[in-house]
Structure formats: structure tokens, C-alpha cells
Amino acid sequence: MSGAADALRLLRGDPRAGSVVPPSGFTARLTVFTAAAMAFLAVFALALALSAGHLADRWGDALARTATVRLSAPAGQMDTQLAAVMEVLRTTPGVATARPMTEPEQRALLEPWFGPDLPVETLPLPRMVEVTETQTGFDADALRLRLAGEAPGAVLDDHTRWRRPLVRAADRLRGLGWLSIGLIGAAMGAMITLAANSALAANAQVIEVLRLVGARDAFIARAFVRRFTRRALEGAALGTAAGMVAVALMPGGDGTGFLTGLGFRGLDWLWPLALPPLAGLVAFWATRFAAFRVLKGIT
Amino acid sequence: MAERGVIELDNVSHSYGGGELLSNISLTLAPGAFHFLTGPSGAGKTTFLKICYAELVPTAGAVRLFGADVRGMDRDQIARTRRRIGVVHQDCRFLDHLPVIDNIALPLLTAGQDPDDERNNIDELLGWVGLRARADALPPELSGGERQRAALARAVIMAPDVILADEPTGNIDWEMSLRILQLLVELNRMGKTILIATHDLNLIRAAKAQVAARVLRIKDRQLNLAGADL
Ligand SMILES: Nc1ncnc2c1ncn2[C@@H]1O[C@H](COP(=O)(O)OP(=O)(O)O)[C@@H](O)[C@H]1O
Ligand SMILES: [Mg+2]
């Protein structure tokens, strides 16, 4: 395609052919600034999209078919009720496995709240049974009814009930993040088009002269495209760098909370590097489009 | 078919929206010919030249440049055809932000050639039009005669087959006019086809002393061969 060939020639550069259009300080600075601001915003949108994505994945995994049964019973009845609970779970369709938590596991669960020295064995703590579902899952309401009948001290804690909306929200947030990036790109394309149009209008005489001495449209378009693409690349590189620094400086945490988890992890850091070339591509096509449209009206 | 011309107009008429400015004009410019185009101001000389290098598409009739119908050409073909026609525009049409030497080299650059490869040619051309000392001046700094000579240098840089000059001696003194005429006569002796629009009858007389120039006159929307009185 001729567009790709033009892009290559553009990268190789030809400052001389570019000089046929007089320099324009103000639109140039404006374009660089716009590209920088857009790239800065895009970095945050990207961080939002990626973090929300990670969160959705993790929460999704965590609730992937696990539930707990919490059993509170007077010390004497604990064992019989536990046996009843296990029997109910064993005969419930959709339950893959059911396993009472061991004492060290329960201690680990409570440690963050009570410290490591908690004498678990002396406390009237509920027993926990970890349940995993099969692919199809179980009917939580029916299971609750059966448990109430067989073991009155048992409560089914269905994680999915409170986590599902969170996963949905995180999913939605991820989508909004990507949508924002798309909108930022479109807005940048629109602004570059406006800037290119004003540059083309300001240089109408120059373009006429170039046509009259035998310049092809592609030559003239290239003079403008080269300029705006370079400005967009420069601006976007600056904005992306600034955005990445800002994200790196965000107060972090263990990454499980939402706000403290906002940022890039590991290979995520490669994503923002795609922003400057993308901005260049947007500028390239926006300017090319604007230039050829204007050139059609000049003999 | 009749003799092939480098520029052929066939029943060309043109109007800018109002009444007809040119009416049913036919002309064949044979290779190597030297023509003047004359007529009162406003008669349509500039319009006629614009039609000859496809800046303007006439409202009726056919224009063939080097045998190809202009209406059948796409924009790239028109660009390439213009490289074969050197034009000295009435208002010169320079890029005012570039020095004279770059303006002269502009057609090379736009044709995808590297002006550095043609440095000797450009220098020779600057010497020919007597502008070596003004090579780095900007067009607005030039005198009228210097502008015309620079425009002529740009018109011939691509070694075109045809040179069209629109009032190349307008607003400049007689001595300088003769010098520019001299350059055009030299080009014609090299085999170039020349068409000069002018209302300066003295210039035409001076030319006739040197070359077999034919004089075309636009009058009442028609193009006619002028009589021997010119
Ligand atoms: N672009 C244009 N639009 C409308 N009228 C024009 C245009 N160019 C020239 N004219 C008119 O056409 C007539 C001929 O102009 P022109 O070809 O420049 O004549 P000349 O060169 O012989 O002086 C003039 O009346 C001029 O006003
Ligand atoms: Mg005129």
C-alpha cells in the first residue's frame, strides 16, 4: 500500500523536502502539547484498565466455585453436627469437594486480626468447611434449607454473592479504561486534523506554488505529514514518560486494594511504550487525510 | 491528423462564470516555435497561458499537452506534465521563505531529485541569468528585473521543452527587458518552444529582429495571427 511506503520514506526523513513549507512555531508547540497531555491521560487510562483487569481476574479466580460452611455449636454437639454437615455436602449435587479446615489453617485465617499467639484451641470458635463447586455449581438456597434441617448451627457463606458485583464492577472498569484510551486517541486525531487543516489553510499559497512547479500531491502531503507525525511522536513520548513517572510514584500497597493496586506490574510497564508510536500513527493518518482532502481543491 | 504540436488547443472557450472571455480558440504550438501573445490588458492572456499548462481547465474544448488530453489526466500526470513546461508567472510565484537558489531548485526537489546532485547546473544557471551574487537573498529582497530572471531560471531548471512567460518584462526597464528577451531567444535557439504574453510592442519588434517570431493577438474573445505591422 502506498500509505506504508510513505510511512517508511517518512521515517527515513528528508528535511529538505520538509523545508518547502515554512516553519510555524505556534501550531507546532500546540500540537506537541496536545499530544503530551493526551498521552499522559492515556497512561492513566491504561493503568486503570490493566489494574481493573488484574483485579477482575483475581477476584474471579478466588470466587471460582468456592464457598464455606461455618458451623457454630456447643462444644458437645460440634462433632455430630460436623458429621451431619459433611453428610449433607456429600449428597448435594454440584458440590465437588468438602473439607473441614485444620486448626493451623483456621489459625492462619485469624492471625491478621488477633496476632500469632491466639490460643485457638481454647476459644469457642466456629469450625469452617471449605466447599468447592463442580462446573455446574450447586443450588445455594436448597443447600441452606437442608443444612438448617440437619445441622442448625451451620451457615453457608456463599462468597460469590458479595464478590460477583465486585468482579462485574472491575470488568466494567477495565472496559471503561480501554474505551477512554480509544476516546483519547480519537480526540487526538480530531485535534491533529484541526491543526493540520489550519496549517494547510495558512500555507495555501505555498501549496499552489508547489503544484505549479510540478509537485505531486504525495510530495506536498508528506511535508505536512512529516511535521505533524514528528510533533505527535515527540509530545506523546514526553507525556508518556511523565505519566509513567506519575504512576510509578503512586503510593503502593500489597496490590489487593483497589486504590493501592492502581498501577503497572511487571510486563504491564511495556504497554505505555506503545502510546508514542500509536500517537504518531494517529497523527500520520489524520494529517494525510486532511492534506489530500485540501489538495483535491487545488489545481 | 495534422502536425503534432507540443501544446494543442481545440475549440477552447472559457468563462469565469460571467460572459465568455475566450471563444472557440484553436492553436497548435509546433516544437521549436517562437510566439508572442498580445492583446489589451484584461483580454485574457494570462487565462490563456493558464489553460496551456493546465492550471485552468477551460469550460469547453480540448487541450492536449504533448499529445495527451488534459481532461484524461489524473493529478499525478498533470504534475509530471507541468515539469515539462517551464512557466514564468506574471507575479513570479516564489516561496518567500526560501532563498533564491532554493526557489530555483524547487522543481528538482519536488520531482524527487536531490538538488545537491545538480549543484553545478544550478550554479551555471545562476550565472546565465546573472544572479550568482543574489543566490542567498530572499525573493522579497530582489528588484523587479532580478525577480523575473530568477523566475526564468526556475522555469528552465527541469530542461523543459516549452517555456511560457507571462509579461516577463512587465515593470522593468528597457535594458533589463532586452536582457530577458535575449535569454528567451537563446532558449529558443536551443530548440525550446517559446510563448511570451506581453503588451509591449517594442519588445516584440526587438525580438523580430532576431528570431522568426509569430504574433498572436487576443481580440474580441478570438485568437488571431497579427498582421505584418507588428
Ligand atoms: N480567477 C478569476 N476569476 C474571475 N475572473 C477572472 C479570474 N482571473 C481573471 N479574471 C478576469 O478575466 C479577465 C482576463 O484576465 P487575464 O487573463 O488576467 O487578462 P490579461 O492577462 O490579458 O490581462 C479579466 O477581466 C479578469 O478580471
Ligand atoms: Mg495577465
What count of helical segments of chain B does DSSP give? 7
Roughly how many Å is the radius of gyration of chain B? 17 Å
Mean pLDDT of chain A: 85
User: What average pLDDT do the residues of chain B reach?
Assistant: 92
What structural class do you assign from the helix and strand content of chain B? alpha/beta
- Spatial gap, N to C terminus of chain A: 25 Å
Strand content of chain A: 5-15%
**Radius of gyration from the alpha-carbon trace of chain A, in angstroms:** 31 Å
CATH topology of the largest domain in chain B: Rossmann fold
Largest sheet of chain B: 6 strands, mixed
* End-to-end Cα distance of chain B: 31 Å
Which consecutive residue ranges of chain A, at least 5 long each, have pLDDT under 50?
none
Any idea what the CATH superfamily of the largest domain in chain B is called? Answer: P-loop containing nucleotide triphosphate hydrolases
- Helix percent band of chain B: 25-40%
Shape of chain A: elongated
Strand runs of chain A, count: 4
Q: Bound compounds, please?
A: adenosine-5'-diphosphate, magnesium ion
Count of domain modules of chain B: 2
Description:
- Chain B: Keywords: ATP-binding, Cell cycle, Cell division, Nucleotide-binding.
- Chain B: One of its GO terms (molecular function) is transmembrane transporter activity.
- Chain B: InterPro entries: AAA+_ATPase, ABC_transporter-like_ATP-bd, ABC_transporter-like_CS, ABC_transpr_LolD-like, P-loop_NTPase.
- Chain B: One of its GO terms (cellular component) is plasma membrane.
- Chain B: Residues 7-230 form the ABC transporter domain.
- The complex is a heterodimer of chains A (299) and B (230).
- Chain A folds into two domains: 3-58 and 171-297, no CATH class; 73-152, no CATH class.
- Chain A is an alpha+beta fold and 299 residues long.
- In chain A, α3 (25-62) crosses α9, α4 runs antiparallel to α6 (140-150) and α7 packs antiparallel against α9 (217-248).
- In chain A, 65% of the residues lie in helices and 8% in strands.
- Chain A contains ten helices and four strands, in the order αααβαβαβαβαααα.
- The longest helix of chain A is centred in the middle third of the chain and has 44 residues, at 159-202.
- By secondary structure, chain B is α/β, with parallel strands linked by helices.
- Chain B has two domains: 1-84 and 160-230, Rossmann fold; 92-159, no CATH class.
- Helices cover 32% and strands 24% of the residues of chain B.
- Chain B has helices at residues 45-52, 75-82, 100-110, 119-128, 144-156, 174-189, 201-208; strands at 7-15, 20-29, 34-38, 60-65, 68-69, 85-88, 162-166, 193-197, 214-219, 222-225.
- A six-stranded mixed β-sheet of chain B has the order 6-7-8-3-9-10, sandwiched between helices. A four-stranded antiparallel β-sheet of chain B has the order 2-1-4-5, with helices on one face.
- The radius of gyration of chain B is 17 Å and the shape is globular.
- The two termini of chain B are 31 Å apart.
- The model of chain B has no long low-confidence stretch (mean pLDDT 92).
- Classes of the chains: A alpha+beta (299), B alpha/beta (230).
- The interface between A and B is medium-sized, with 20 and 29 residues.
- The structure holds adenosine-5'-diphosphate and magnesium ion.
- Adenosine-5'-diphosphate binds next to α1 of chain B.
